[in-house]
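pasting DsbA family protein for the record, 206 residues
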Amino acid sequence: MLRRDFLANGLVSVTALAAGLGLAGPALAEITEIEDMVLGDPDAPVTVIEYASFTCPHCANFHATTFKDLKKTYIDTGKVRFIHREVYFDRYGLWASMVARCGGEMRYFGVADLVYTGQREWTQGEPAQIAENLRRIGRTAGLSNDQLDACLQDAEKAQALVAWNDANTKADGISGTPSFVIEGELYSNMNYDDFAALLDEKLAAK
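structre below
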């Protein structure tokens, strides 16, 4: 699990991240509303919120394994409404989020899957190379260079995402990724069997 105390060791904080990106001018309170990215029936009896970083190896592993089975068994069948919220431990995670969100909700989860699947590859190199690696993922998902440049250069959106991340993680007490808020209760990473047992318990209580 990648932890937020990683931040305390001097790598970055969300406020420093904003400043480092040249986004500290306007007050962070002056942000646009950021939309949650959601899968599943909006009226599903159980809601799961995942907090994950696109640069977190444990998050990539969760999406490659447990998530695929959860989607098939619980999300696609209308039992679970699933919300994916990005957490930013570094600028690369923020850039990945901006690329994933570039195509809107319709493309978000497809791009996110490519980002997680290719995590070991796109995170290699200097910042300019990493940015180009993410653009390549976006182009694979059908986004144009103009769309990607506009999204990655959207300073207002970047600032809003940083503030949104900070507010959400503080409100839900997130200390590492991946973490899950299930029906208002916070849980750490789980394998599929434990996750399924917990969801069955929550569904039975409805």
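The longest strand covers residues 46-52.
Residues 155-172 form the longest helix (18 residues).
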